[in-house]
């Protein structure tokens, strides 16, 4: 596959994934109990957790 096409497809995939992930994180944030420590823990995990599923896509996009 042409590298430009791979980067286009991957970029569109990343944007779609991030939109879905953000909405899911917002919905799940409403479900956790209202406690400052749990809020902090949840938002730290949710704020960093999006990167792990993106790594294989980035590797695929940049592979020749």
Explain what you see:
- With 64 residues, the protein is an all-alpha fold.
- It is built from three helices and no strands.
- The longest helix is centred in the N-terminal third of the chain and has 29 residues, at 3-31.
- The chain is elongated and about 50 Å long.
Topology:
Blueprint: H1 3-31, H2 36-49, H3 51-62
Helix pairs in contact: 1-3
Spatial separation of the terminal alpha carbons: 9 Å
The helix-strand sequence is HHH
- Unreliable spans are none
Roughly how many Å is the radius of gyration? 15 Å
State the secondary-structure class.
mainly alpha
The helix tally amounts to 3
- Summarize the main sheet: none
Number of strands: 0
The overall pLDDT, averaged over residues, is 93
Query: What global shape is seen?
Result: elongated
Helix content: over 70%
Keywords:
elongated
Quickly describe the structure:
With 64 residues, the chain is mostly helical. Helices cover 86% and strands 0% of the residues. Helix 1 (3-31) runs antiparallel to helix 3.
């Amino acid at each position: 596959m042409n590298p430009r096409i791979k980067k286009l497809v991957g970029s569109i995939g990343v944007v779609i994934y991030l939109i879905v992930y953000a909405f899911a994180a917002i919905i799940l944030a409403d479900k956790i109990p209202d406690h400052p420590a749990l809020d902090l823990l949840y938002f730290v995990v949710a704020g960093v957790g999006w990167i792990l599923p993106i790594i294989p896509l980035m590797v695929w996009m940049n592979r020749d």
